[in-house]
Amino acid sequence: MRTGIYTITSPSGLFYVGSALDVPTRWKSHRSALRHGKHANRLLQAESDRYGADSLKFEPVLAVLDREFLFLYEQTVIDDREPSLNLCRSVVRNARGTLMTYGEAHAAIKAMVSPVEEDRAKRRKAKAQAAMDLMVKQAEDLDRALSLLTRAINP
User: Most exposed residue of 4, 24, 37, 74, measured as fewest CB within 10 angstroms of its CB?
Assistant: First the structure.
């Protein structure tokens, strides 16, 4: 299964529900963060710290063929199973409170990130231009100094 829903269960019986476009890669990412004590989910990290990352059981739950419905299926599994280690019980909702498709969520995230990236690019460009202006000014100052020196030596 590539795209789908999965659970991560602790020996204590507490569990987490997640979804991914590439489930095996996502599991590797979870496991690596947990082993290094850097997982974003503090509850899951606490279980890993208590029992060890290798004791957590990873199980694929549902293969999702159409990624547009990935969040819908994840929300259904969360609502049905009531996981104790999920920090948030809601997957991705729009302003109207209805569940977004993967495409809608991706577009919404891209719309939020794009202005930030554009601002960073503008700041980088302004910084590069300021550095270039400074180099041009320094070159002009050196040229003037050389010209004055040349006139002083050769009157």
Answer: 37
